[in-house]
Amino acid sequence: EILRGTLTPPQCPLFGRTCTPESPTGP
Predict the structure, then answer these.
(1) How many CB atoms lie within 10 A of CB 19?
(2) What pLDDT score does 24 carry?
């Protein structure tokens, strides 16, 4: 799941890293 940081949504494609609520990589 995205919130769990186990998925890489289109808005968080940084080097294939996961996006977590603690470390959002959005705009």
Answers:
(1) 20
(2) 56
